[in-house]
Each structure stands twice: as C-alpha cells, then as structure tokens.
What does this fold into?
Amino acid sequence: MGLKIKEWLKDKLPEIKEWASTIIIATLIALFIRSFIVQPFKIPTGSMRETLIEGDRIFVNRFIYGLRIPFTTVRFFKFNYPKRGDVIVFNYPEEPKRAFIKRLIAKGGDVVEIRDGKIYVNSQEFDLPCVKNIYYYNRGDYGLIGQKIVVPKNSYYVLGDNSRSSKDSRFWGFVDDKYLIGQAFFVYWPLNRIRVVK
It folds into this structure.
C-alpha cells in the first residue's frame, strides 16, 4: 500500500509543484495589492451617514497618499496629499489596531471652529458640497462653542458626516499623518449602493 502511494506521489509531484507555485504566487499578488494598492473595508457604524451607511463595503486607495510599508508607519512615493473634503481611513489614535473612517476637514496649521452648525477653517466657511447640508454639533473637548482649534503640524482634524453620533476629532483630537491608511473611493456592496465616494 505504501509503495503505491509513493508511486502515485512520484507521478503527481510535478502537478503538485505547479499547483503549489500557482497558489503561492496568487497569494503574494493578493497580499501586495491589499497592502499597497487597494484594500476592502466594511462600514461598522452610522457615523458617516448618509455618505456611507452600516454594512457598506468600500475600497480604499492605499497608495494615493504614499505607499506604506506593512506593519510600520513608514510611507514613501506620495502621489497626492490629503485634502479637505477627502473621506479618509486611518488607524484610530487611541487604539491604533482599529480603523476609522471620517471626512478630512482641516490639516496642519489650519484653525477650525464649529459655529452655528457650520464649520469654519481659517475663518472661512467650509462650503464644499459634501458638507453643505450637514449640521455640526459643538461637542467634546475639541469642538466647544467659541473654541478655535489649531491643527498641529502633520496632523488632521476629521469629522463624521453624521455629526449627531460620530466619535471624531471633537472628542479625541487629531489624526497624526503616520496613522493615515488611505482614501475611501468606491462602494462596491451592496449592489444597490454601488457608487463613487464623495
């Protein structure tokens, strides 16, 4: 019996090697794509309603703000810089193993104020279409009435589109550039919500 198995293995060895090499190469390509190019995420909460709702599955462009070496905060080859209005995915500063998604409102050096439900950046109303109809509430240590927040260098001030129930920069402060994962750009599931993220 053992001899038959050995003979069968000997006959099948080239085929097994071919399958194994194909699986290894496919796995390496998938890991490369996920680590450097595009990564899928699932929206867990309603903090970005109505832009993104619970259960939406999205693709995040990981290379647009620079390729990040996996398991580090080192980034190189920046293709673009984060800009106000981008929907970004980042490691939550208070618990870096968790990924959060919010809208970028201000960058290092900007002065932010939430007044009468509107956002002001450097004394100018933040009037991009994506936030035009959102009422922003004064909450948390970094979003009090009459408070002007200066965003530190290499950091971002982010808010959820559902201001009523979003744990964002108003509560915990700023996202350091090293925590940035990428830009959300496409909802691919469910089918009735397929769209570009704006």
Q: What stands out?
A: The mean pLDDT is 87. Residues 35 and 70 are 6 Å apart (CA to CA). The helical segments are 2-37, 169-172.
